[in-house]
Design goal:
OB fold (Dihydrolipoamide Acetyltransferase, E2P), five-stranded mixed barrel
Length: 153
């Protein structure tokens, strides 16, 4: 996999116009099969992991951009239908002070980074942590698919 962090600029049901962090050109990336199978919704402004290996780029992971609703001590709340009243945890290594009104990127039930001008504040840390996890997840899914009996036989 040739993974890159990108921002979703506009989205359809099958993919997004994306812009890789640090690049000026945008391009269309289709959603990977697992993204479609799990009905992952991507909105403009979300942080994406795009695989640029092969002929057509694919969105393989999404971090949702949310605004922090409330902070009480170490408990951080984001007002979403799935997490109302449930504090979000911080990803390991995210030590910055977070206050109500901050915009953050969330994945897997954790606040992974703070957004600064719509981009992650610590893209290198996200790459170091997320890219190996995403690669392992996709390798595992490929193994499961390879071992599934073909329904057509």
């Amino acid at each position: 996999m040739n993974l890159h962090l990108a921002i979703a600029l506009s989205c359809t049901e099958t993919g997004c116009e994306t812009q890789v962090l640090g690049e000026t050109n945008s391009f269309h990336a289709e959603f990977s099969e697992p993204m479609i199978e799990h009905r992952i919704i991507v909105r403009p402004g979300d942080l994406l992991v795009v695989n640029r290996q092969g002929d057509s780029p694919q969105v393989v992971f999404r971090l949702v951009r949310f605004q922090v609703d409330q902070v009480t001590g170490e408990r951080i709340f984001i007002d979403t239908p799935c997490s109302q009243g449930i504090p979000m945890s911080r990803a390991e290594g995210l030590d910055e002070r977070i206050v109500a009104g901050d915009v953050v990127f969330v994945a897997n039930g954790q606040i992974c980074d703070i957004a600064v001008n719509g981009h992650p504040a610590h893209p290198e840390r996200l790459q170091a942590v997320l890219f190996p996890q995403i690669q392992a997840m996709y390798q595992q899914m490929e193994g499961v698919r390879a071992n599934k009996p073909n329904a057509d036989t």
